Amino acid sequence: MTNVRKHADASHAELVLDYTDPVVRLDVRDDGTGTATGDGYGLVGLRERAAHVGGSLRAGRAPGEGWTLTMEVPG
């Protein structure tokens, strides 16, 4: 959510946390027009932390407009 505030120029953001044994899934979506490429250190760090516990992270432009980030880690 910090990155949405700092980089997205969004008017709306949504965070969804879902736990379906054995996976915890976090989805963040916004309607922003930010120019981030997904190559910043913040996303690198998130991706490394997810991988460290056997999880994954996907981030990029959403269809249409905005940005989406999905992290899944074992629960």
From TrEMBL:
Its EC number is 2.7.13.3. It comes from the Bacteria. Keywords: Kinase, Transferase, Two-component regulatory system. InterPro entries: HATPase_C_sf (IPR036890), Sensor_HK_TwoCompSys (IPR050482). One of its GO terms (molecular function) is kinase activity. The keyword Ribosomal protein does not apply. This is histidine kinase. It catalyses: ATP + protein L-histidine = ADP + protein N-phospho-L-histidine. It is an enzyme of class 2 (transferase).
